[in-house]
Amino acid sequence: MAKRMYTLKDDSLFKLLFTKYEDLLKRLVADLLEIEYESIEKFEITNPEMYPENLGDKYCRLDINMIIDGQRVDLEVQVQDEGNFPERSLYYWARDFSTALREKQNYSLLPRTIVICIVAFPLFDCDEFHSEFQALEVTRHTQLTDKMSLHYYELAKLPELLDINNTQELWLKLFQANTEEEFNKIEATGVPVMVEAVTAYRRVRSSAEMKEIERMRSKAGHDQAQAEKYLRDLQDSVAKKEAEIAEKDTEIADKDTEIAEKDTEIAEKEAEIAEKDTEIAEKDALIAKLETQLRTHSNDA
């Protein structure tokens, strides 16, 4: 079964789909948080934009921020395990929570802030695919506040069989799907919202917007490859120059060593000459002394 290039785990398709089909996003959130769809009175996506420069970015992060009945909700999908996701998701929660307070407002007006994370890898040491974290006292488990909630859905731990009576699992199976056959199986359940979601996915996948995203990503890939080649060539050029300089430095050091050796030889020769000069001077002094003695002896005679 051939894998699809773009699935719901793809950041841009994920955001394009759920901003284009806002009601599907509303149903998804209701099922993930296990709240009644009809109970949601106010639903707003606060960051629907997808900026072209971000879509071409290899490392872009396209999450969806919402306000649901006064609560802040952040939904994102994480495919790669970078080893820091719990800390990263807590940072997202803290950022969303802290920026909700307007100037001079009372802290009690901070809204309940929920982060929903769908991850494609095992994250926690447990069998359950859904984990919710809140701020609790460590021994009594007393809740500090109800304004903190982080939900994690681990796709790797989903049961293999489709349960048509569990819409939450079906949504997560949709995110887990990588092949057309897997999408067909979900559609074949006949669950209305799943049929609608698969249809919307196929429309978005073949849409002009998605083709433009593909074009931009392809261009970004070529631009990045060209930039990386230029950087490699520049690094190679610098390395070559540094090697030439190092070679010249070695030659100069060798010459300096030769000169130092010559200077040592010259100093040794000069020392030998000085020693010879001293010997000659001593001999000349001895001869002069003997000559003096001879003259004195001759005069006495």
How would you describe this protein?
- It contains eight helices and six strands.
- The protein is an alpha/beta fold and 301 residues long.
- The chain has a domain at 11-206.
- A six-stranded mixed beta sheet has the order 1-2-3-4-6-5, with helices on both faces.
- Helix 1 (11-20) crosses helix 2 (22-33) and helix 6 packs antiparallel against helix 7.
- The longest helix has 93 residues, at 208-300.
Largest sheet: 6 strands, mixed
**Biggest sheet: strand arrangement:** 1-2-3-4-6-5
Outline: elongated
| Structural class determined from secondary elements | alpha/beta
Report how far apart the termini are. 135 Å
Task: Output the helix-strand order.
Answer: HHEHEEHEEEHHHH
Q: What is the percent of helical residues?
A: 55-70%
Mean pLDDT score = 87
% residues in beta strands? 5-15%
For the CA atoms, what is the radius of gyration? 41 Å
Number of helices: 8
Total strands? 6
Contiguous runs where pLDDT drops below 50 for at least 5 residues: 56-60
